[in-house]
Design brief:
The protein is mainly alpha-helical and 85 residues long. 51% of the residues lie in helices and 9% in strands. The chain has a domain at 40-72. It has helices at 17-32, 40-47, 51-69, and strands spanning 2-5, 11-14. It has a two-stranded antiparallel ribbon.
């Protein structure tokens, strides 16, 4: 992530393309979560993004979320414990 100069000389973050697409995907998923599950193709088509790249971005987001599930507070099943009753 680079810093770029914005209007009036203020510093702004310059996001990578993948980071930008990740934010687009998260926003889209949040906006449609009550209606239906969204595919990478649906998101890519709506925003004019490569569906292959969007699929990779969503895979990375899913891996990050899943890996964080292993460090949840006590009482909430982590991935190793999920479904083992």
């Amino acid at each position: 992530m680079d810093l770029a100069w914005g209007q009036a000389g203020s510093k702004m973050f310059k996001l990578s393309k993948k980071a930008d697409y990740g934010l687009i995907a998260v926003k889209h998923l949040a906006m449609h979560r009550e209606q239906h599950a969204c595919s990478a193709n649906e998101i890519a088509d709506e925003y004019g993004i490569s569906s292959t790249l969007m699929a990779k971005v969503l895979q990375k987001l899913a891996r990050q979320i899943w890996s964080q599930r292993s460090t949840v507070p006590a009482g909430i099943p982590a991935r190793e414990d999920a479904g083992s009753d």
